């Protein structure tokens, strides 16, 4: 088994790369999706978030108000993202470890890809990222492209007022600031640049797949 961490800042194209790797046969675990599942009513993570952040983050139907939670988490005057991370990240990392352990038994030759913007910074308090992954792939794109992709996704095709656009851009910058990757971390990564058109990304992913295959079960 090869355990690959797939990272890159928001809007860099990680999910697109994950999808392409899955088409080659990789087993992909998405941290964002796992986090969302654990934040559903009835889950321990949901209860811990409501206990910390209060009833103001609960919508009338009982689900979490993600927009309000994001506002509190990334509030520039009083950010609480570390508090939120301390609840969600250990649970997500623990679930990933359990799923990878299961795959070791059922599919020992699997190439497992864990997708997360926070591969280097997310902690469960115990296991350093070096012990959780055999190789890290970093997807990069220019800052302006990443912000534009976030604004486009968040507005879902709606026309934005200049004030709404400015708010979304500020939200994007606040999230990106929490994802910055240091040159020391980058030096550990296989870097995939994604500033061009999709076919050139696809060609790079084809090469990446061959490189990962050639690693076998070796740590990079
Ligand atoms: C703040 C929340 C409620 C915002 O929800 P929203 O639906 O707007 O965003 P979504 O979860 O789809 O994330 C979109 C992107 O935001 C960025 N982002 C999310 N959480 C964080 C964080 N803690 N730090 C930095 N960037 C983040 C990531 O690039 C992510 O891909 C949510 O992202 C959250 O609970 N974050 C904390 C837990 C977390 O880190 N989740 C992501 C991986 S487990
Ligand atoms: N090379 C490309 N050309 C055109 N569009 C692209 C390219 N790469 C990615 N995209 C588009 O940009 C958007 C963001 O890409 P993607 O969701 O893969 O990024 P991400 O890094 O996973 O972002 P996030 O962390 O926000 O989930 C998507 O709509 C995707 O289809």
TrEMBL record:
Reactions catalysed, as given in the entry: 3'-dephospho-CoA + ATP = ADP + CoA + H(+)
EC annotation from Swiss-Prot or TrEMBL: 2.7.1.24
Residues bound to ATP: 11-16
Record localization: Cytoplasm
Pathway(s) served: Cofactor biosynthesis; coenzyme A biosynthesis; CoA from (R)-pantothenate: step 5/5
The UniProt record lists the keyword ATP-binding: yes
GO MF annotations, alphabetized: ATP binding; dephospho-CoA kinase activity
Free-text function comment from the UniProt entry: Catalyzes the phosphorylation of the 3'-hydroxyl group of dephosphocoenzyme A to form coenzyme A.
Similarity comment text for this entry: Belongs to the CoaE family.
Name of the featured protein: Dephospho-CoA kinase
Organism lineage string: Bacteria, Pseudomonadati, Acidobacteriota, Terriglobia, Terriglobales
